[in-house]
Design goal:
20 helices; globular; alpha+beta; 5-stranded mixed β-sheet; 25% strand; Threonyl-tRNA Synthetase, Chain A, domain 2; 647 residues; single chain
């Protein structure tokens, strides 16, 4: 066969024999690059170094400097861990690894007994030995029969089950290093020597295929980097993340309680409700200006509603259904607001003069998340969203998306969220609606993102089944991306519900429909905000904004007067009149993350003043202030939702 053309990132082209591997191309470019190569990238997709090239391509060689390097290294370290486990526990069966290697790797194992801390130490030490051997990774394309023969000979019953999940038309690949072999899509690095440092971090229980009635497995988590320095830095970030873990901070600050009797459904304590209601009230306060009307839809509806919307067929296992009083009646617990909002739009005759119609709702939603996926407030079964649905004329969609970005900026600025990344998620394999309509909608969203001044990333195939969407991702202290604000064009639901309005031409038309959220799930947003701030909330949102600290009981009367004035102004305040030292009271206020403490001693009592003390300031103590002046300034900053008590 004739040579094929490989175009490099610098614009140069190479002619290489048909079937040459990515690694062979790297070797042709230069031995240094070949030695450093971890993988290739074709049309934005990572490919294995051993993958043969059959057509003309644009190729990029991925090295440790690439953003994707960490994922490749961790995926490869995952196989090294499984190898170490099999060497130490030959009867162990391997299930699957992790699909997301952005920060860690994992494998599930079927073993006779749970792993002990001593076992984990032995496994990690054996991994180090394997890394030192510099074993190369080999990629092998096999038939289904050959894969079945290999896995059967190894006694890997779980893997044989997973083999049946692979579609008939899909390519089946095995990866080997040393004596270890596993069923895997890859890609993997060249050699175990390119995995610079590994650390096993935790062990937990899991179930095969997430089925609690199936075999119970042991899951080992770990992480890996190109160098020991990068690993140390990551572990330091992990330690900081542990300090900020919302499950820990939430308990320390008495925000919420998690109980095994209500899995996935948090108990909000008074201080937590203050933060929760503060977020809701803030978003709600913007609704009149942005043209939203609040509605409330039923918690329980007949299954027919969700059959019309498409949720019954697409997400039935993720919803709660039960029999009604009539044996033939099936009732669904509300998991999303959109079907109900469509029902409201369909009430009565709608005209183009009514549009856009923007329905917003904060009511509770319930989703049947698997018990193993529940995580504090970040993954729950009971939640609320700052949810809204916009019904408009097709030509009004662009203006609505522009308005969405204005609202996002206003809310995130008040909450101190910076560095938001914007992406457009495109059509998944299973979707509703015409592919051409999807393509047009995706193009419009990309243009809206760019018009708003953001670089636009693309998340291929990541949209929900009913339409493309814009996602605002925020990165936490570990660099993990959390999707918060979204706006999504619905390509199917208006037609499924038969929604119509009378247009400017007097004819009947189908409205465009947008799904919109700014905070997203309030529970998940609170988890993010707690970890982002470490519990040091913006002053206007803090559950306790001011602590009044009299030095002795002699100042109790003046302290109570200060407390009363602050309460009358709507400031959340607490008087600490215990017979403790001032230092003790200050430390208590610091631990409770109270933004502002007001110290009252003999001088302050005599002058009718207070001495402010800021928790988050290099200048801890300020000059004394008159009470009325202070109250006025604090009330103004709360009303304007300022980050701190003083501007």
């Amino acid at each position: 066969m004739s040579d094929i053309s490989v175009r490099l990132p610098d614009g140069k082209t190479l002619a290489v024999p048909h079937g040459s591997t990515v690694l062979a191309v790297a070797e042709q470019i230069g031995p240094g690059l070949a030695k450093a190569a971890l993988a290739g990238r074709i049309d934005g997709e990572l490919v294995d170094l051993r993958q043969p090239l059959r057509d003309d391509v644009a190729l990029e060689i991925v090295t440790s400097r690439d953003d994707a390097a960490g994922e490749l290294i961790r995926h490869s370290a995952e196989h090294v861990m499984a190898d170490a486990v099999k060497q130490l526990f030959p009867d162990a069966q391997i299930d699957v690894g992790r699909s997301d290697h952005s920060e860690k790797f994992q494998y599930d194992f079927l073993v006779d007994r749970p792993f002990t801390p001593e076992d984990i130490e032995r496994i990690e030490k054996r991994m180090q030995d394997i890394l030192g051997q510099g074993q190369g990774f080999e990629r092998e394309i096999v038939s289904r029969e050959e894969a079945r023969r290999v896995l059967s000979s190894m006694g890997e019953e779980l893997k044989l089950s997973r083999l049946e999940d692979i579609p008939d038309e899909a390519e089946i690949t095995l990866y080997r290093h040393g004596d270890f072999v596993d069923l895997c899509r890859g890609p993997h690095v060249q050699s175990t020597s390119q995995i610079g440092a590994v650390k096993l971090t935790e062990v937990s229980g899991s179930y095969f295929r997430g089925d609690e009635s199936g075999p119970k497995l042991q899951r080992i988590y770990g992480t890996a980097f190109a160098s020991a320095k990068e690993l140390r830095q990551h572990l330091q970030r992990l330690e900081e993340a542990r300090k900020r873990d919302h499950r820990r901070v939430g308990v320390d600050l008495e925000l919420f309680h998690l109980d095994a009797l209500a899995p996935g459904s948090p108990f909000y304590l008074p201080k937590g409700m203050t933060v929760y209601n503060g977020l809701v009230d803030f978003v709600r306060s913007l609704y009149p200006r942005y043209g939203y009307q609040e509605v409330m839809t039923p918690q329980l509806c007949r299954a027919e509603l969700y059959k019309i919307s498409g949720h019954y067929d697409m997400f039935r296992e993720d919803m709660y259904f039960f029999e009604g009083s009539d044996d033939e009646e099936e009732i669904g617990v509300k998991a999303t607001n959109c079907p109900g909002h469509c029902q409201i739009f369909g009430i009565g005759l709608r005209s183009y003069r009514d549009l856009p119609l923007r329905f917003a709702e904060f009511s509770r939603l319930h989703r049947n998340e698997r018990s193993g996926t529940l995580s504090g407030l970040a993954r729950v079964r009971s939640m609320a969203q700052d949810d809204a649905h916009i019904f408009c004329e097709p030509e009004q969609v662009t203006a609505e998306v522009d308005s969405f970005f204005e609202m996002v900026r206003e809310i995130y600025e008040a909450l101190g969220l910076e560095g938001v990344e914007i992406a457009v998620s495109t059509r998944p394999e299973e979707s509703l609606g015409d592919p051409q309509d999807w393509e047009q909608a995706e193009k419009m969203l990309v243009e809206s993102v760019e018009r708003a001044g953001y670089p636009c990333k693309i998340k291929p195939g990541d949209a929900a089944f009913y339409g493309p969407k814009v996602e605002a991702d925020f990165r936490d202290v570990l660099g993990r991306a959390w999707t918060l604000a979204t706006i999504q064009i619905d390509m199917a639901m208006p037609a499924r519900f038969g929604l119509k309005y009378v247009g400017r031409d007097g004819e009947s038309h189908q409205p465009a429909m947008l799904h919109r959220a700014i905070l997203g799930s309030l529970e998940r947003f609170m988890a993010l905000l707690i970890e982002h701030t470490g519990g040091d909330f913006p002053f206007w949102l803090a559950p306790l904004q001011v602590a009044v600290l009299p030095i002795s009981s002699d100042q109790a009367g003046h302290a109570r007067a200060v407390e009363r004035k602050l309460r009358d102004a709507g400031i959340r305040v607490e008087l600490d009149d215990r017979s403790e030292t001032l230092g003790f009271k200050i430390r208590e206020a610091e631990l409770q993350k109270v933004p502002l403490s007001l110290v009252i001693g003999e001088k302050e009592q005599a002058d009718g003043t207070v001495t402010p003390r800021l928790r988050k300031s290099k200048k801890k103590k300020f000059e004394s202030l008159g009470i009325d002046e202070l109250v006025s300034q604090l009330a103004k900053n709360v009303a304007e939702r300022r980050m701190g008590p003083f501007v």
